[in-house]
Structures are given as structure tokens and as C-alpha cells.
Amino acid sequence: MRKIIIALSLAASHGGNGLASDRCSVAMADWKPREALQAKLEGDGWKVRAIKTEHGCYEASAITADGRTVEAYFDPQTFQSVDTKTEN
Length: 88
Fold this sequence. Notes:
This protein is of the alpha+beta class. The chain is 32% helix and 31% strand. The longest helix has 13 residues, at 2-14.
């Protein structure tokens, strides 16, 4: 029983952390400018609405080349995709 309580306590304390926060742990000095991410995405055919910082990642609100509206999270150093949420 004690192990279950400990496990639930740990899960609750980390439950608010999103997938992106687990993958974006780059020192601010190593971040590339958000304008560079915007240029990359636009080069891929995306229409970028906004880029902001969220949980240590860049979050881009955009329409992809195939017309999907997304919130996409990127590593700020490599611009590798970390997570993507498609909006309805």
C-alpha cells in the first residue's frame, strides 16, 4: 500500500509537465533565434502565426504545408520537432 501511495504522489507531482518540457532542456545561451525557426518552417511551406517559448521549447502556432492547423514544439537548439498537436 505504501508503494502505491508513493507512486501516486510522484505521478501527481509530475503530472503537469508536458511532453515538450521533458525534451527541451537547452541552456538559453545555446538557443537559436526564433526568426531562424520561422524561416525554416516557412521554407517547408508552413504559414506561421506565432512562435513563443513554452516549457523550454519553441511553440509554433501554424498551418502546415498540407493545411493542418497545429501547435508544434521544437528544440530551440536543433529545431527538431518534439511534439505536435493538431487543432480541430
